[in-house]
Amino acid sequence: MDKSYKSIFSKNYIDARVYKAPLNETSKIRLYMNENYFGPSPKYKDAVLKIIDRDLYQYQSGGNKMLIEALSEKYKISNKEILITAGSAESISQIFYSILNSSSVVLLPDPGWSYYRGISELLGAKIINYKINRNNDTFEFDVNDLIKKICKFNPKLVVITNPNMPTGNKMEYNDILKVSKYLKNGILLVDEAYIEFSDEKRNLYKCVNKYRNIIITRTFSKFYGLANLRIGYIIANPDIIDLLYKSSDLFGISGISQKIAIECLRDTDYYSKLKNDVLRIRDKFIESINRETSFYAFPSQSNFVLVDTRSMPSDDVVNKLEAEGFLVRDCITYGMENFIRITIGKEEMMDGVFRILKENTL
User: What is the CB-side half-sphere exposure of residue 140 using CA atoms within 13 A?
Assistant: First the structure.
């Protein structure tokens, strides 16, 4: 880097270790980004066929009104509790930039998505990790550790990824509300990027007016299979939504993207079948690994599975899979030695991955 820039950009900005998305590899099967290989509802084509010239040459206006109203109708919440963003990554970035500064403390899950850490470092915030511990054959949020650190460090922001990535476990509904009560002077951000794949029995978004320090982020990228359209949204009480709106994109996401998302939202039959298929294939994959290999696959509440490669180095497993055309995530980037994360794809894909793992088991 040209040294002259160091006097212009902040030290926090220069030193931050930002998250970088993997290169766009198309020649192999990408089971490392938790994309939805089943794809979106075919009804998205109905929206595409209705595109007219005006949809392209006019700026989108109205504050993403169409999609907000569709989400409001689906979840039976006020449209004043919803803010549309360009993917949940923008939601998260918007929240961090609105709340944190160099005098702030932020509590982040460990292990967890490095994107949170990167933004926190850019803003110069003090990062405190709370633990997600392995308990024999599962991972569990250490809620007591989290509450102790809230009481000790008085954070401006606490992040819970639910289900967590890369471990795939969930924090219980009542535990989230308990954490919210202890957080007297901060915001509790619950990142629900994978929530639709879970056994979601109680809806946290119903609580944002009673528990007014909770902000929820969701996305159309994972469950709805619209990752390349970059559509996300925030659910929070109207006062928080009004504040976050100040830093929203001037024109919002495109009207075309909104129309496609709405068609997908309404196709409940397609997504009910999709969820059943993903969970069936996932559970079969986990059972097969645990029964027929020396590796261990953890229970998951998402569309990915965390695998302990045990005595076999994880990079060896990753390389063997890549040689056969499958890309998976080495979890050393999360500080987890000899763990890999595998996205659940179509059945023939997972059968192929299982075959390779079985052939290379110790």
Answer: 9
Helix, strand, coil fractions of the chain, as percent rounded to 5: 45, 15, 40
- Domains (range + CATH), the chain: 5-40+269-360 (3.90.1150.10), 43-267 (3.40.640.10)
Can you tell me the distance from the alpha carbon of 39 to that of 34, in angstroms, rounded to the nearest whole number? 12
Taking the mean position of all CA atoms in its chain, how far away is CA 227? 11
Q: Give the pair of three-digit tokens for residue 228.
A: 């390349």
pLDDT, tens digit (0-9, with 9 covering 90-100), for 170-212:
999 999 999 999 999 999 999 999 999 999 888 999 999 999 9
Q: Report the DSSP beta bridge partners of residue 43.
A: none
The residue ranges of DSSP E strands in the chain, in sequence order, are 29-30, 82-85, 105-110, 126-135, 138-141, 157-161, 187-191, 214-219, 232-235, 296-297, 304-308, 326-327, 329-330, 339-343
pTM higher than the cut 0.70: yes
CA distance 295 to 60: 50
Residues 48-86 have pLDDT tens digits of 998 888 888 888 777 799 999 999 999 999 999 999 999
